[in-house]
Amino acid sequence: MNEVAKIKYWQSMAFQDAEAMMTWLSAVGFVEHATYREDGIVVHAEWLWPGGGGLMFGQVREDGAIKSTGGSSAYLIDDDPDAVFDKAVAAGATVVRPMVDQDYGGRGGTVADPEGNSWSFGSYQPS
Questions:
Q1: Which of 20, 55, 74, 96 is most deeply buried (CB count within 10 A of its CB)?
Q2: 93-116: pLDDT as tens digits
Q3: How many Cβ atoms are within 10 Å of 32's Cβ, its own excluded?
């Protein structure tokens, strides 16, 4: 079984401009696993977070399951969340909550991507 087949939870999103968001996701650190297009439109994509987990997405379509964009949120764990946070901002994200040390352990911060989705980056790993 390959590593992708072991992933049992996938975040699902839709984007107004999936191509632009793929550039942003790549800058943040996601790795493309598969992207399928019809007539030049991203209808399904599977991108992986290096620490584990995945994101499935596509462009908003009239026949799609997700009809709106900008309301999703995700928490991504990384050994160096400050670096990931900085990459996200450099790629066009807006700071929602700056990186801070958390009372419950670890560090974390939140940005909004160019389409308004919230992404929290942190080092806190529940045990």
A1: 55
A2: 999 999 999 998 899 999 999 999
A3: 12
The domain containing residue 100 runs over which residues? 3-122
1-5, 68-72, 119-123: the lowest-pLDDT one:
1-5
127 within some domain: no
Q: How confident is the model at residue 3 (pLDDT cuts 50, 70, 90)?
A: confident
Structural domain contains residue 94? yes
pTM of full prediction above 0.85? yes
Structural domains in the chain (count): 1
DSSP character at residue 22: H
CB 88 within 8 A of CB 76: no
Nearest to 76 by CA among 46, 91, 100, 55: 55
Question: How many other CB atoms are there within 10 angstroms of residue 29's CB atom?
Answer: 17
Report, in this order, helix, strand and coil percent for the chain, each rounded to 5.
Answer: 20, 40, 40
